[in-house]
Design goal:
9 strands, alpha+beta, 6 helices, about 20% strand
Length: about 240
């Protein structure tokens, strides 16, 4: 028998004897038959160190289970004595096995990246109360409500040199869906929204070349401008 086996056998034999003395006085209570700890360990002679540890742990679990019917004071005394013997023979075994049996905490969920906000659009000098803004040099235009852009920016074609689109503040004064230009041989100006009394308007047209002063828009944009802009809406062109 190895020195560890002899040591543990002696300790557990003492525990068994103490358990008998503690359990005996418990009146009117069924007493479970405690496992023979010393014989369990003695049977492991010649086994590996791991086998001895497993045997000691198995016996401990049996003792803890079978003393559950005893008076709590007696049960705790028996369990404490055996645990002390286990700790003396195999230091740290109880803590190691107890920790291993505990449910492992679930890993914390990976932090969710905050959504990247859309950077605010540069609206230049266009005032918040303007309904439509036109950036001539940037070839962009958009619709807004109280300074919040809700449509665009979209591309446009302004007036050509010598017939430049006027810059400044204007107001929508007239809308003609199927407009034509009488000055330019009845050239079509669908979805015309006039902002001066000199013939300047937003309307559908070809963006490949500049206009005679109007703001030309692609078809879908022209329809949106025609539907959204109302008489009296402020137009700001810069």
């Amino acid at each position: 028998m190895s020195s560890i086996s002899r040591r543990l056998t002696g300790l557990l034999a003492s525990v068994a004897a103490a358990a008998t003395l503690l359990v005996a006085p418990v009146a009117a209570q069924a007493q479970p038959a405690l496992p023979d700890a010393s014989s369990n360990v003695a049977g492991a002679v010649g086994s590996s160190q791991q086998d001895l540890r497993d045997s000691a742990w198995s016996t401990r679990n049996q003792i803890h289970q079978q003393t559950s019917a005893l008076h709590p004071q007696a049960a705790n005394a028996v369990r404490g004595a055996y645990d002390a013997a286990i700790e003396s023979a195999f230091p740290g075994l109880i803590n190691q096995r107890t920790e291993a049996a505990r449910p492992k905490p679930q890993p914390a969920p990976a932090p969710v990246a905050a959504p990247v906000g859309t950077p605010a659009m540069n609206t230049g000098p266009c005032p918040a109360d303007a309904k439509v803004c036109v950036d001539i040099d940037g070839r962009r235009t958009w619709l807004q409500n109280n300074g919040q852009v809700y449509y665009g920016p979209v591309a446009h074609a302004p007036g050509k040199p010598g017939q430049e689109t006027p810059r400044g503040t204007f107001w929508v004064n007239r809308k003609v869906k199927d407009e034509v230009s009488y000055i330019f041989n009845n050239a079509p100006m669908p979805y015309a929204v006039y902002f001066t009394y000199n013939g300047h308007a937003f309307h559908q047209g070809n963006l490949a070349y500049e206009s005679a002063g109007c703001i030309r828009l692609n078809p879908n944009d022209a329809v949106t401008y025609f539907n959204d802009l109302q008489i009296g809406d402020k137009v700001f062109i810069y």
